[in-house]
Amino acid sequence: SYACLNDSILRRPPFSTIQLQYIIDLYETIEENAFDKVLRDYVKKELIEETFTDKERECVLREFSRMTFEKETIAETLKSVDSWISMLKRLMIRVLNANISLDVPLQLYLERTDLWSDRVSDLDLETFQVDDDILLQHTYVILRGLEKKQETSNKLPQQLQEKTSEIQSKEGEQKNFQTWCENTPRVATKPKVLKPKLRV
Per the record, which residues fall in region Disordered (predicted)? Predict the structure, then answer.
């Protein structure tokens, strides 16, 4: 089937207002979304997590993390887990959709500047070295592990913030009650005196 964007769409905002310098960023964003929405469901059997044992997955992720973004001497642009996740998604789309050997060291692809955003330079890519026993077939396992790590790190600040606001709201209620008690005039109540009833 033949499908494309209608030319009139490109003449109307927001597409017509995109500056040329942002086209690559837009393309990469679309590419990552395409992976998340469509291609993630069609990952090759050799790459899926179930192909490896839990121990193998943990070992690969631990070693990869230690040699890359957790490394103290790595370039500042590569310290973010987000940049690695984006790069691995592009690798899955651009390279692993083709019929290639998966027994190749992953490092060969991590060195390619075309898979990284424009903020990552050749010099940045020289600040890490992944062992040759981490292969292209481990790409999806590493990607999933990093995504889980990212989800966990995103949940912790959110839970802390919720707990803090809960504590603040309880303290706030107590403070409001105390203020109300102090500012509300007290009504002095006297005991009610009952008069004797007259019986007729």
Answer: 153-174
